[in-house]
Amino acid sequence: MKRFLQLVKDCLTTIKEHMPWDLEERLQENPDILLVDVREPYEYDAMHIEGSMLVPRGILESACEWDFEETIPELVRARDREVVVVCRSVQRSVLAAHSLQILGYKNVASLATGIRGWKDYDLPLVDGDGNDVDLDYADEYFTPKLREDQLRPRDWVDPV
């Protein structure tokens, strides 16, 4: 049995990653890069990289194929384009990039450090209406808000 972070680590052996500053440069060199944001709609509406396409992780695979309610034609046709997958901090984007590779996408990468790292590098973010997001607000937004019941119990023994 694998844990979530082990699964992500295993996928990283086959997934390219771009640091935010590298992606900023790549976007200038190749404006045809398809940025696929796999976060949830409420996360995307709060802030995202301008020009990115929202494809929530839960529908990614069906969005990549014809004849589904979730089909996104631009994504289906992007198998030969450079695609960079984005999420909040990197785990979902790595798993999504892995799925895209399995589905035949030839040039896929993940944004290392995710939107959080993009923000930490002081690169711009916009909200769902296209307005610039104050990066101080983004700092607060990205601060983890775990409930007590989400924390590992002190007496927890990991069976793995």
Word description of this protein:
The chain has 160 residues and is an alpha/beta fold. The chain is 36% helix and 12% strand. It has eight helices and five strands. The chain has helices at residues 4-11, 20-29, 41-46, 60-63, 73-76, 91-102, 114-120, 135-141, and strands at 16-18, 34-37, 53-54, 82-86, 107-111. It has a five-stranded parallel sheet. Helix 3 links the parallel strand 2 (34-37) and strand 3. Helix 1 (4-11) packs across helix 6. It is globular and about 50 Å long. The mean pLDDT is 95.
Could you provide a short overview of the structure?
Helix content is 36%, strand content 12%. The chain is α/β, with parallel strands linked by helices and 160 residues long.
The major pleated sheet works out as: 5 strands, parallel
- Estimated helix fraction: 25-40%
Low-confidence stretches: none
Widest β-sheet, arrangement of strands: 1-5-4-2-3
Number of strands: 5
Number of contiguous helices: 8
Q: Span between N and C termini? A: 7 Å
User: What is the CA-atom radius of gyration, in angstroms?
Assistant: 16 Å
Name the features.
8 helices, 12% strand, 36% helix, five-stranded parallel beta sheet, single chain, alpha/beta, 160 residues
